[in-house]
Amino acid sequence: MPVSEDQLRQLLAERSDPARHRPVPQERITARIRRARMKRAAGAGLLAIAVAAGAVSGVTLAHDHAAGHAASYSGPPLPASFTESDGAVYHQLAVTSLDVPSQRYARLTVHVGSEPVAVVMGACGSSARGVIIAFKVENGDDGVIACQATPRAVDLSVRPGRTAVITFVQASQLGKPDLRASWQLAVYQWTPPATLRPAPAAPRLPRSYAGQNTVTGQGSARWRLAAGRSGDWPGDQTVTITVPAGTGNFGVSVFCAGAIAGRLQVHISSPGMKGSQTTCPAWITPGQQQWGQILIGAPAGRPMTLTFRFQAPSPEVAAAYAKRAASWTIAVYEEQ
Q1: Separation of alpha carbons 149 and 131, rounded Å
Q2: What pLDDT does residue 60 have?
Q3: Residue scoring higher pLDDT (39 or 206)
Q4: Of all residues in the chain, what percent are helix, strand and coil, respectively (each to 5)?
Q5: Which pTM was predicted?
Q6: Environment class of residue 272 by beta-carbon count within 10 Å: exposed (0-12), middle (13-18) or buried (19+)?
Q7: How remote is the C-alpha of 330 from its chain's centroid?
Q8: For 42, phi and psi rounded to 5 degrees?
């Protein structure tokens, strides 16, 4: 997910004031924020129901389903172990499945050792692609994992030596109210590679693209590259970009490549602006990306300085992430 709606609203409010003569279409953004909040509220309600259903016994490796329902997952099973492209090795601790609509929730209980742990969701068929499963770690953080053609890991923020009870519920059907499907979900512990491998090639973003016309709120406009940088994780963790003074609004694109792309966090700040943090989206292939994920109003005829800081998803995995290579590219586009 490129950036939360609340973060986008904050950035717009703080940066758009000097550009009132060329306003961003606030009503459309407000509508999107309202829809996103409704989806989050629905997901939170489902999580509350699942957690209130009662805790499972403290078995080290266990899983259970909603009473009276048996899992019917029949897709390719998640492997007992696998190695990611950067050399990190994953070993499965526990696995379960979630059927929709017959199950209200599924739950796993695992004991966390000294190594990081992550949730992996099995590959999805085209009919269920994009459906989101929410997970809640008892006495810990919550998060979401999306149904994709290729399974991807989502790290859990759990302190070593703790027993983690993880509850899974369906959070969104993305316009598929009659969906009937089953997903396999597993928790893995992983070990980073012994030595840092070379980072993959950095994403190559276009020099221009046709995007939304934010001046009129209708049609499209040409957005051209105003400034950009590329670098490698973990060597290049902080970069400052100064964008020349312009007359249009700006769209910021950030993409990462490598096994931990889509999991690295990026904190964005500017003088006089409260910082904002988002996940660095994974680079897929040109033509499948969304450019200018973060919209910023033009600072009235003066240069704009943006500082980007890349970091691990949580302090618990920071040391392990320092042994995993990735690359990143930042592009700032100006609306013509």
Answers
A1: 11
A2: 30
A3: 206
A4: 15, 40, 45
A5: 0.73
A6: exposed
A7: 17
A8: -65, -40
118: amino acid identity, one letter: A
Closest CA relative to residue 146, chosen from 285, 282, 324, 315: 282
Rounded distance, CA 294 to CA 254, Å? Answer: 9
Buried residues in 197-222 as b, exposed as e (16+ CB within 10 A): bebbebbebeeebebbbbbeeeeebe
- Is residue 248 within 8 A of residue 336, CB to CB? The reply is yes
Phi (first) and psi of residue 31, to 5 degrees? -65, -40
Does the N-terminal peptide bond of residue 234 adopt cis geometry, omega within 30 degrees of 0? yes
Phi, psi of 126 (to 5 degrees): -60, -30
Residue 18 reports pLDDT greater than 70: no
- Domain 58-191 is of which CATH architecture? Sandwich (2.60)
Rounded CA separation 231/228 (Å): 11
Q: Domain spans of the chain?
A: 5-28+197-335, 58-191
| Segment 108-159, tens digit of pLDDT | 999 989 999 999 998 877 777 778 899 999 877 788 888 887 888 999 888 8
Q: What is the pLDDT of residue 87?
A: 96
| 274-295 mean pLDDT | 78
pLDDT at site 22: 37
Query: By the 8 A CB rule, do 118 and 154 touch?
Result: yes
What is the arithmetic mean of pLDDT over 38-51?
Answer: 35
312 DSSP 8-state letter = -
